[in-house]
Design a protein that fits this description.
Chain lengths: 336, 296
């Protein structure tokens, strides 16, 4: 097992180096002089230019710049935002809980709906329910989620008035930032109605962000379940007279879940990139909105740092998924 | 006595056989039908569209669709905030979306095939380097990578297409490499090599035609993700710039109309959804029809 983990880890290091190379190169690919681009239309004086150039290390040879960058990154130093002058890392850490909260709720929604839908579709193969699940999941899979967000907002916020349009909590509440997770903070604050307001604000964004993962999970669960249900041991279990639901839940589901776990893990990338769109529509103050705003403000250190952190999170999660996969499925662990 | 001539049933040509399997999938045929319609719209956009996509009718701002109260049959799906006909913009948008899909898929297919063939054929060091880069690209979600590329190159439709073709590259490289490696050990490749075929002939004339099936399927699915990513970039203001009639960028400022003009919000997104869905349906059908393992 340890050998398996080490082997996976050895694959992660070159990938991480590659991503630092990518984000490092990216900022140097900006057409024109990076400092003038960063300064924008105001322009900079020659003296200020030289000063900035030295400060950002642009006057050194490329390989030195890269080493400086990587050693900074490894110490958690991603530079400072050009706009707020705050360290990129600190800005990220204050905004990240909002994105995690949203992504977690979206994942819970996707699993709670996708998994049962996939299981029932497989068990009732060929029925109307199966066909509807497959149609819905293919539609969900093809969904432009930014439009889905607008559509749901149109129906549930504007026409029905059931949910708020945007933000994390109603403006009448002032919630102290304890954990950064609005649900927990609102709950802890003890203010009447604050928790309910936080929940109401989360519903639509979670559904929107969870739609594609839900579709993927439902499809994967169905096909994996179908495969397992046709195996001999299931027939044996049925022949022994075990209750049908027990065969499905206890015998089949356990094995069918193995590929589904992997697919759920792989949704982290989809959730984080989908968060960019979802947060933009719902004015959700997380890292997705932060990244897009920093692009339009040409705040390159933030763009560079933000992309690096997100990519790193995804690599780490994929590694964890791989290891979990190795734990639940010994065959993977021992193959090459 | 009558003589009866018995003839062996003529074997189906590959094309007939393909159609036989493909047409048994209703969803795939529906997808194909929709794509043909959209393609027709795209090609003849200038003739079909009732108005120019950039004409601003000052007397008809935010007009609802024709069947609604206050609608005008001259503007079937209504008008936007500066009085442009939404239907005409959607029709012209089809041209743009399909063109971007085409360019992005062709570019990444060409580059992917080349890199995949080289990696699979030569193996060793080249293979390792190419595959490592591919792994790095796969570690990033495609939309994030596309955003990063556009953030640097500057927002425009050309840069967005370039970004999309770069981010979809890894899939083609992996597929081609895997197929090439499988074909390399076949007898026909060995015999061509013995006859004296050079690496170029072996790669492009012997091996490549036999690797095409999975690539065709992936290219179809690639179309759908290209259109989806393009629309997302347009929505974020990183793709086509206004006043270009691109489906995603038509939605970019729709947020302010959610309250009073649902048609501005609804129709462009519906077009994106239906087109992406059509390509996905067709891709699924193609996979079933082209995969010999599923034919039995």
């Amino acid at each position: 097992m340890i050998q398996f983990i080490l082997r996976r880890l050895s694959l992660v290091i070159p990938t991480f180096i590659g991503i630092t190379l990518l984000t490092f190169t990216l900022i140097r690919l900006i057409p024109g002089d990076p400092i003038e681009v960063m300064a924008g239309e105001r322009g900079v004086s020659a003296a200020r230019h030289a000063e900035l150039s030295a400060q950002l290390g642009f006057d050194q040879p490329l390989y030195l710049q890269y080493f400086r960058y990587v050693s900074g990154v490894l110490q958690g130093d991603l530079g400072n935002s050009l706009v707020t002058k705050e360290p990129v890392m600190r800005e990220f850490l204050t905004l990240f809980p909002a994105t995690i909260e949203l992504a977690l709720c979206a994942a819970i929604f996707a699993i709670l709906v996708g998994l049962p839908a996939g299981i029932i579709a497989a068990v009732k193969r060929g029925t109307l329910f199966d066909h509807s699940v497959m149609t819905f999941s293919l539609t969900g899979y093809s969904m432009p989620i930014f439009w889905w967000a607008l559509l749901l907002m149109l129906i549930f916020s504007v026409n029905l008035g059931w949910t708020p349009v945007s933000g994390r909590i109603d403006v009448v509440y002032w919630i102290d930032d304890v954990t950064g997770f609005m649900l927990i903070d609102a709950f802890l604050s003890g203010e009447e109605g604050a928790f309910g307001s936080a929940v109401a604000h989360l519903i639509l964004p979670s559904i929107v962000l969870g739609t594609i993962p839900m579709a993927v999970i439902a499809r994967m669960t169905r096909s994996s379940m179908l495969e397992v249900l046709s195996e001999d041991y299931i027939r044996t279990a049925r022949a022994k007279g075990i209750a049908p639901w027990r065969v499905i839940i206890i015998h089949a589901l356990r094995n069918a879940l193995i590929p589904v776990i992997t697919v759920i893990g792989l949704q982290v990338g989809i959730l984080l990139s989908g968060a960019i769109l979802t947060e933009t529509v719902f004015a959700w103050p997380g890292i997705g909105k932060w990244l897009i705003e920093s692009i339009s403000r040409r705040d390159y250190p933030v763009v560079q740092g933000g992309i690096l952190i997100v990519a790193t999170i995804i690599i780490v999660v994929n590694l964890l998924v791989d290891i979990t996969y190795g734990i639940v499925n010994p065959r993977i662990r021992h193959s090459r | 006595m009558t003589t009866q001539t018995l003839s062996a049933p003529t074997p189906r040509t590959p094309l007939q056989e393909f159609w036989y399997y493909f047409s048994s999938n209703k969803g795939a045929v529906a997808g194909l039908g929709f794509i043909v319609v959209i393609g027709f719209m795209a090609i003849f956009a200038d003739v079909i569209a009732p108005h120019s996509p950039s004409d601003q009718a000052r007397d008809a701002l935010l007009l609802p669709p024709a069947w609604m109260e206050g609608g005008n049959w001259a503007y079937l799906l209504g008008t936007d905030d500066v009085g442009r006909d939404i239907l005409s913009r959607l029709i012209h948008g089809a041209r743009l979306s399909l063109a971007v899909g085409m360019v992005a898929v062709t570019a990444s297919l060409a580059m992917g095939i080349l890199l995949g063939l080289v990696a699979g054929y030569f193996k060793g060091m080249i293979d390792t380097i190419i595959m490592r880069i591919v792994d790095i690209m796969l570690a990033m979600p495609s939309l994030l990578l596309a955003i990063a590329i556009v953030a640097v190159l500057g927002p425009s439709i050309v840069n967005a297409a370039l970004a999309i073709s770069i981010v979809s590259l890894p899939h083609y490289v992996r597929l081609t490499r895997a197929a090439t490696m499988a074909e390399m050990s076949r007898d026909y490749v060995t015999s061509s090599r013995v006859i004296g075929a050079g690496p170029l002939r072996l790669m492009f004339i012997c091996i490549l035609p036999n690797c095409l099936a999975p690539l065709i399927v992936q290219a179809t699915l690639g179309f759908s993700s290209a259109i989806l990513d393009m629309a997302a970039l347009g929505f974020l203001g990183l793709g086509a710039q206004p006043p270009t009639p691109e489906w995603g960028s038509m939605l970019a400022d729709a947020l302010q109309f959610v309250q009073r003009a649902w048609w501005v919000v609804t129709f462009p997104g519906l077009m994106i959804l239906l087109t992406v869905l059509a390509f996905n349906l067709m891709g699924d059908g193609l996979r079933d029809a082209l995969d010999p393992k599923l034919k039995q």
